[in-house]
C-alpha cells in the first residue's frame, strides 16, 4: 500500500482508562481478529500483564481499515507499556508512530500518567487525537474532562470523540478520525535505510527478533544491516508483520512497522531506540532519541534452596533474552549463599521479574531489600558505586556518600496538598514548585531521594491522599546525604542480606521498626533470639523473639495419624520457604521487611 | 500384641469441641448398625477398645449384644476398655460390662466445672461424673481413666487447678488431659473460637505435668498420666508401632504396616458391610512420630530391624540438633525429654525433612 494510506499510531492512557479495551474493539471492527477468537485484551499476551492490567511487552499489529470514503488504509497499532518504570520504552514506541489516540476516562479525568505520556508523545512530534472513554458510566463528566484536557494539555477538544470502548459505542468514529486527523508517515523511500528499533523478542529458533518502524528506505531479506549504536552487523533472513498472527513479507518499506529476523544471538545487540541502517549504504546519522538504559534499583536474588543456584542462573539468562534492561551478576552473601545482584528499571520491573522467576521457572526465591546506587567517595579520593548496602566501605574510609535524587511530579487534589507536602518533607524532599492545574487539582514538584521513593512512598502517598494522587518521576542527579549503614543482628550475628543504608536521622526509627517487624515475621524457635539493629557496631534498637515453648498435638491415636502427618507436612512446606542463617530460620518475607514495616509509630 | 478398636459412632448430642465421626441417630439406625457389627468376624486379641462417639449411649440391651459378640475374642491377661459418658452410664449398663468382663472404663468428664460443662455442650454435671465413678467402683471396676480438657473458652487457671485437685482426690489410676484443639469441623471451629495462647498453654501444661509427677503419677505420654504401670495398653499399641484392627465406620486400623479407614458411611455399612479404605502410610516415620509421644520412646534396634535402616545414621542431623535437651538416647531407645514432648511437632518436622 502506498505511504499515504498508512497510519502508525499508539493508544496512550493512564492505567485502567481503557487502552487495551479500545485496542480490542479496533481489532474487532477491522475484522483483524474474529470475535470468537477474541480473548479479552488480546494485546496483553503474558499472564502477568493480564492479571496486573499492565502491559510489559510491546506489540505492534497491522490491520486493514476499509474507510467510509471507500479506500483501504493500513493501520499499525503500536502498543506501549503503561508504567513509569518503562518510560524510555514508551517514548521509543511512540517514536515509532506518527500519531496517538489519547484515551481519558470520563469519570477520572486527566492523571499524572496521562500527562507524562502526552508529553512523551509531544516530544516525539505526534499528532494527538483526544478520546473520552467510559461515557456510559453514571459518574461520567465528558464536558468537564474535555475542559480539563484543554486546560492541562492545550489540546482542542471540540471534536473529541465520546466513546465506550467496552460497548463499542462510537469506536467507528475513532477509526475515521485516525484516517483523517492523524498524518501518514513522512519518510523518503529512496533515502538510505533508517529503521527505529522499538522492541525485541527472543525466539528460541530464530534468535532475537527486532520490532522496527521503517522511517526511511526499505529493508529486504538478504540485506546487510548495521545497528548504529552497537555496530553489530547481520544479514536479514526474514521480514514481516503481525496481524496479530505472524506474516512473512517480501520487504518492509518506508512507513511500515514490522519485524526483522537475522539470526541475532545476543539481545545486547538489539537495543531499544537504536537505528538499523544498511551496512553497504549507511545513513549519515542515526534517528534521534537513543539512550542507554541503566537500572536504577538493585536487589539480591537467592534461591531458598542453595542447590537451585544453577536453575536461577539459567532462568535469568532466559529472561534476559527478552529483557535488555534486566542486569545481573553473581554475588555471594554470608547469610544467603550464592545468588545474583540484579538491576531493574524500577520497583515494578523488579516485581515482575521476581514473579516470573517464581512462576514460570518454579523457583523459590529470597529477594533482599531493594537498593539504589550510592556514589561513595572515599578518603583516598576514589569513588565507588555501591548497589549492595553490605558492601559499603567502613565509615572511617568514607569522605561522603551521594545518592540519586528524582524530580517527582505529583498531581494531587487541592485538599490533599497539605498531607502530600508533609509526606514529601518527611521523605527528605525538597520543595520545587506548586502549580495550579484547574479548579480542583494541583501539581506538586519535589526533588526526592530515589531511595525514599522505593522504600514505601507509593503506599504512603496512596493512604495520605485516599488514592487520588498520581506520581511521575525521573532521575535528576546525585546529591550528598548523611547516610549510614544499618546492620541487623540475629542471635548476635550480623546478617549481611538485611543491611540497609539509611539517613542518619531516620536510623533510630527505622531500626526500631525493622526489629519489630522481624520479630513479627520470624517464627519462634527452640531458643530465644535477640534481634538488634546496629550502626558501626553500636546497637540502636533491640527486641527478642521468645523461645517456642509448646507445639504439639494433644491427641494422637490410631485414627489421628493421617491428619497429624498432613499437619506436619504443612509445617514442613512453610519451613522449606525459610532460609537457615546460622542457627536461625528466617522466612523469605523477612528479607523484604524493610519495605513492609511501619516506621510511623 | 494384638489390638482391636471398635468405633461406636453414636452420641445423644454433639459437644462443641468434637470433630470425630459421630451422629445422633435414632434407634432404628443403631439397631441396624449393631446387627452388622455383630456379623463382623473377630480374631483373638490382647486389647479391645470400644470408642466413639459414646459407647455408653447404646441402651442396656444393645450394649449386652455388642459385648456378647466380642467377649470370646479375648486372650488371657486382656485389657478391655469402654468409653462412657457420665449422663448415660447407668448401674444396669455397668452390670452388663462387668458380666462380660470389661475391665477398664474411660470416662468423659472434661471438667468438674458445671458452668464450663454447659458452655461446651456437655449434657451432664460434675456430680453426674462423681456418681458414675462411684457406681463403677461399687461394681468392682477400679481401672478407671477420666478425660479432662484444659483451655476451654472462658476457663481460668484456677479452674484447671480445681479439676486437677478433684482428680487427685478421686485417687484414680489414669488421666488423659488434653489441651483444647479447635477442630475445623467442630462447633467451636465453625464459631471461630481461637485456640489457647501458646504461652498460657505452655504454662498450664507444665503446671499439670509438675503437679501430677509430684504426687507419683507417671507422665507416660504427652497427654496421659497414670499410677506406676497403669498404662492404657491399647493406646500404647498405637504409640508402640503395633498393628491394630479397626471395626465399624469411623474406625481406623493397620495391618502389615498399612493403615486404613473404615468408610464413614453408615448407610452403606448397614447395607453391604464395612469397606476398608487404605490410607497413605509412611510406617518408618510414623513409628517415630508416635513413639516419641511416650516416655518409652522408639526402640532403635527394633526400628532398624523392622525398617531395614539405621535410625541414628539416617537422622544424624536431627539428633544432633535436638540432643540432649529435647531428645535423648537411653538403653537403646530414642526418647523425647519433657521439653521435647512439649514441642514435638517442631522436632517431627525435621524428621520429615530428612527423607
UniProtKB/TrEMBL annotation, chain A:
GO terms assigned for molecular function: GTP binding; GTPase activity; ribosome binding; translation elongation factor activity
Top-level class of the enzyme under EC nomenclature: hydrolase
Pfam (any one): LepA_C
Catalytic reaction equation(s): GTP + H2O = GDP + phosphate + H(+)
Family membership noted in the UniProt record: Belongs to the GTP-binding elongation factor family. LepA subfamily. Belongs to the TRAFAC class translation factor GTPase superfamily. Classic translation factor GTPase family. LepA subfamily.
PANTHER family per UniProt: TRANSLATION FACTOR GUF1 HOMOLOG, CHLOROPLASTIC (PTHR43512:SF4), TRANSLATION FACTOR GUF1-RELATED (PTHR43512)
Protein name (Swiss-Prot/TrEMBL): Elongation factor 4
Organism: Catenisphaera adipataccumulans
Gene: lepA
Automatic annotation (TrEMBL), chain B:
Domain Radical SAM core: 1-218
Biological processes per GO annotation: porphyrin-containing compound biosynthetic process
SUPFAM superfamilies hit by this protein: Radical SAM enzymes (SSF102114)
Pfam families, per the entry: HemN_C (PF06969), Radical_SAM (PF04055)
GO CC annotation, single: cytoplasm
Gene3D superfamilies reported for this sequence: Aldolase class I
The organism's place on the tree of life at top rank: Bacteria
MF-aspect GO terms: 4 iron, 4 sulfur cluster binding; coproporphyrinogen oxidase activity; metal ion binding
Family designation: Belongs to the anaerobic coproporphyrinogen-III oxidase family. HemW subfamily.
Family matches, as PANTHER family: COPROPORPHYRINIGEN III OXIDASE (PTHR13932), RADICAL S-ADENOSYL METHIONINE DOMAIN-CONTAINING PROTEIN 1, MITOCHONDRIAL (PTHR13932:SF5)
Function: Probably acts as a heme chaperone, transferring heme to an unknown acceptor. Binds one molecule of heme per monomer, possibly covalently. Binds 1 [4Fe-4S] cluster. The cluster is coordinated with 3 cysteines and an exchangeable S-adenosyl-L-methionine.
Name used for this protein in its record: Heme chaperone HemW
Source organism (scientific name): Catenisphaera adipataccumulans
Amino acid at each position: 500500500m502506498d505511504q499515504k494510506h498508512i497510519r502508525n499510531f499508539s493508544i496512550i492512557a493512564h492505567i485502567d482508562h481503557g487502552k487495551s479495551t479500545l485496542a480490542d474493539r479496533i481489532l474487532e471492527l477491522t475484522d483483524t481478529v474474529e470475535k470468537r477468537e477474541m480473548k479479552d485484551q488480546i494485546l496483553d499476551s503474558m499472564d502477568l500483564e493480564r492479571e496486573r492490567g499492565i502491559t510489559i511487552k510491546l506489540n505492534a499489529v497491522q490491520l486493514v481499515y476499509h474507510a467510509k470514503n471507500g479506500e483501504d488504509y493500513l493501520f499499525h497499532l503500536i502498543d506501549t507499556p503503561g508504567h513509569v518504570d518503562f518510560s524510555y520504552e514508551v517514548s521509543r514506541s511512540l517514536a515509532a508512530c506518527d500519531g496517538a489516540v489519547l484515551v481519558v476516562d470520563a469519570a477520572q479525568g486527566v492523571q499524572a500518567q496521562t500527562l507524562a505520556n502526552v508529553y512523551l508523545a509531544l516530544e516525539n512530534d505526534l499528532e494527538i487525537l483526544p478520546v473520552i472513554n467510559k461515557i456510559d458510566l453514571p459518574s461520567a463528566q465528558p464536558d468537564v474532562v474535555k475542559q480539563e484536557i484543554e486546560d492541562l494539555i492545550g489540546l482542542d477538544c471540540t471534536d473529541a470523540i465520546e466513546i465506550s470502548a467496552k460497548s463499542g459505542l462510537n469506536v467507528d468514529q475513532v477509526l475515521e478520525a485516525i484516517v483523517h486527523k492523524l498524518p501518514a508517515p513522512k519518510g523518503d523511500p529512496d533515502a538510505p535505510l533508517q529503521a527505529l528499533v522499538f522492541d525485541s523478542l527472543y525466539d528460541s529458533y530464530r534468535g532475537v527478533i527486532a520490532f522496527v518502524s521503517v522511517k526511511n528506505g526499505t529493508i529486504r531479506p538478504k540485506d546487510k544491516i548495521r545497528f548504529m549504536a552497537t555496530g553489530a552487523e547481520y544479514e536479514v533472513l526474514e521480514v514481516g508483520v503481525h496481524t496479530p498472527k505472524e506474516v512473512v513479507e517480501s520487504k518492509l518499506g518506508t512507513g511500515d512497522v514490522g519485524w526483522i529476523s537475522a539470526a541475532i544471538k545476543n539481545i545486547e545487540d538489539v537495543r531499544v531506540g537504536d537505528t538499523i541502517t544498511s551496512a553497504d549504504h549507511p545513513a549519515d546519522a542515526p534517528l534521534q532519541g537513543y539512550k542507554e538504559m541503566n537500572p536504577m534499583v538493585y536487589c539480591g536474588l537467592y534461591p531458598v534452596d542453595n542447590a537451585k543456584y544453577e536453575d536461577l542462573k539459567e532462568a535469568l539468562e532466559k529472561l534476559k533474552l527478552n529483557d535488555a534492561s534486566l542486569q545481573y551478576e553473581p554475588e555471594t552473601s554470608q547469610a544467603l549463599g550464592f545468588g545474583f545482584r540484579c538491576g531493574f528499571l524500577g520497583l515494578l520491573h523488579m516485581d515482575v521479574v521476581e514473579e516470573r522467576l517464581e512462576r514460570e521457572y518454579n523457583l523459590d526465591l529470597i529477594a533482599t531489600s531493594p537498593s539504589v546506587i550510592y556514589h561513595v567517595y572515599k578518603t583516598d579520593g576514589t569513588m565507588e558505586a555501591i548497589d549492595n548496602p553490605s558492601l559499603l566501605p567502613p565509615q572511617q574510609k568514607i569522605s561522603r556518600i551521594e545518592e540519586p535524587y528524582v524530580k517527582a511530579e505529583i498531581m494531587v487534589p487541592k485538599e490533599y496538598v497539605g498531607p502530600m507536602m508533609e509526606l514529601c518533607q518527611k521523605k527528605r524532599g525538597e520543595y520545587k514548585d506548586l502549580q495550579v492545574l484547574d479548579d480542583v487539582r494541583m501539581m506538586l514538584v519535589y526533588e526526592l531521594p530515589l531511595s525514599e521513593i522505593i522504600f514505601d512512598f507509593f503506599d504512603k502517598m496512596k493512604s495520605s491522599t485516599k488514592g487520588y494522587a498520581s506520581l511521575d518521576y525521573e532521575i535528576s542527579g546525585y546529591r550528598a546525604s548523611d547516610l549510614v549503614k544499618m546492620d541487623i543482628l540475629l542471635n548476635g550475628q550480623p546478617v549481611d542480606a538485611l543491611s540497609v543504608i539509611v539517613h542518619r536521622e531516620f536510623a533510630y526509627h527505622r531500626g526500631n521498626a525493622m526489629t519489630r517487624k522481624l520479630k513479627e515475621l520470624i517464627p519462634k524457635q527452640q531458643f530465644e533470639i535477640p534481634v538488634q539493629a546496629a550502626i558501626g557496631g553500636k546497637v540502636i534498637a533491640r527486641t527478642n523473639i521468645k523461645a517456642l515453648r509448646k507445639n504439639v498435638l494433644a491427641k494422637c491415636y490410631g485414627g489421628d495419624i493421617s491428619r497429624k502427618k498432613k499437619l506436619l507436612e504443612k509445617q514442613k512446606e512453610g519451613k522449606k520457604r525459610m532460609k537457615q542463617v546460622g542457627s536461625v530460620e528466617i522466612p523469605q518475607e523477612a528479607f523484604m521487611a524493610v519495605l513492609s514495616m511501619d516506621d510511623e509509630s | 500384641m494384638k489390638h482391636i478398636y471398635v468405633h461406636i459412632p453414636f452420641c445423644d448430642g454433639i459437644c462443641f469441641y468434637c470433630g470425630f465421626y459421630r451422629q445422633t441417630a435414632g434407634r432404628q439406625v443403631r439397631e441396624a448398625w449393631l446387627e452388622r457389627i455383630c456379623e463382623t468376624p473377630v480374631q483373638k486379641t490382647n486389647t479391645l477398645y470400644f470408642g466413639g462417639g459414646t459407647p455408653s449411649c447404646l441402651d442396656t440391651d444393645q450394649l449386652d449384644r455388642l459385648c456378647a459378640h466380642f467377649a470370646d475374642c479375648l486372650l488371657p491377661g486382656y485389657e478391655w476398655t469402654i468409653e462412657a459418658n457420665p449422663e448415660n452410664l447407668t448401674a444396669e449398663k455397668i452390670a452388663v460390662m462387668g458380666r462380660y468382663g470389661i475391665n477398664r472404663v474411660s470416662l468423659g468428664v472434661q471438667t468438674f466445672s458445671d458452668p464450663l460443662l454447659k458452655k461446651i455442650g456437655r449434657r451432664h454435671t460434675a456430680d453426674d461424673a462423681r456418681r458414675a465413678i462411684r457406681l463403677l467402683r461399687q461394681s468392682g471396676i477400679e481401672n478407671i481413666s477420666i478425660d479432662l480438657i484444659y483451655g476451654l473458652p472462658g476457663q481460668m487457671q484456677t479452674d484447671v487447678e480445681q479439676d486437677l485437685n478433684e482428680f487427685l482426690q478421686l485417687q484414680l489410676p489414669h488421666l488423659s488431659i488434653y489441651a483444647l484443639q479447635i477442630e475445623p469441623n467442630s462447633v467451636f471451629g465453625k464459631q471461630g473460637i481461637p485456640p489457647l495462647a501458646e504461652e498460657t498453654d505452655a504454662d498450664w501444661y507444665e503446671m499439670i505435668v509438675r503437679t501430677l509427677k509430684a504426687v507419683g503419677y507417671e507422665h507416660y505420654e504427652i497427654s496421659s498420666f497414670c499410677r506406676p504401670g497403669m498404662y492404657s495398653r491399647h493406646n500404647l499399641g498405637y504409640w508402640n508401632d503395633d498393628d491394630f484392627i479397626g471395626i465399624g465406620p469411623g474406625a481406623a486400623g493397620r495391618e502389615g504396616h498399612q493403615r486404613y479407614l473404615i468408610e464413614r458411611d453408615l448407610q452403606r455399612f448397614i447395607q453391604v458391610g464395612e469397606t476398608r479404605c487404605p490410607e497413605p502410610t509412611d510406617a518408618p516415620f510414623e513409628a517415630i512420630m508416635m513413639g516419641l509421644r511416650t516416655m518409652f520412646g522408639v526402640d532403635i534396634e527394633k526400628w532398624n530391624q523392622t525398617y531395614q535402616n539405621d535410625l541414628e545414621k539416617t537422622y544424624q542431623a536431627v539428633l544432633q540438633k535436638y540432643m540432649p535437651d529435647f531428645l535423648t538416647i537411653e538403653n537403646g531407645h530414642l526418647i523425647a525429654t519433657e521439653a521435647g514432648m512439649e514441642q514435638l511437632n517442631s522436632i517431627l518436622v525435621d524428621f520429615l525433612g530428612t527423607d
